[in-house]
Design a protein that fits this description.
Layout: E1 3-7, H1 11-23, E2 27-32, H2 35-45, E3 49-52, H3 61-71, E4 77-81, H4 86-95, E5 99-102, H5 107-118
Parallel strand pairs: 1-2, 1-3, 3-4, 4-5
Helix pairs in contact: 2-3, 3-4
Length: 119
């Protein structure tokens, strides 16, 4: 099954995401606490999909997307963020994110976004 990297500065969000993903049969192979950590773990772990928050310390999700896409143009990144601001969603997609899931997320919506990114 597909491997997932979680990038969010809030531990409880990652805990909920991991629970949902485990139940759906995905393997969470790592989690990052900020954008810099997300880039480092992406390089090392090579996950099939990254779930990326936008608002994080050190490096935000948008800059992380930019760096990861430079490293790997085929990277599959799904933004999962509480920010429902249109401009950030458009920017994330422009930078190469495959989808945007708004927090608090519906488990089905998250699963569908990952399945779509893997096709």
């Amino acid at each position: 099954m597909a491997t997932i990297l979680l990038a969010d500065d809030l531990a409880f969000i990652k805990m909920i995401q991991k629970e949902v993903l485990d139940k759906a049969g995905f393997t969470v192979i790592g989690d990052a606490v900020d954008g810099v950590d997300a880039v480092e773990k992406y390089k090392r772990l090579k996950p099939d999909v990254v779930l990326m928050d936008i608002t994080m310390p050190k490096m935000d999700g948008l800059n992380s997307i930019k760096v990861i896409k430079q490293l790997d143009p085929n990277a599959r990144i799904i933004v999962c963020s509480a920010l429902g601001q249109q401009q950030l969603i458009i920017e994330a997609i422009r930078l190469g994110a495959r989808d945007f899931v708004v927090k608090p997320f519906e488990p089905d919506r998250l699963i569908k976004a990952i399945q779509k990114a893997l096709k």
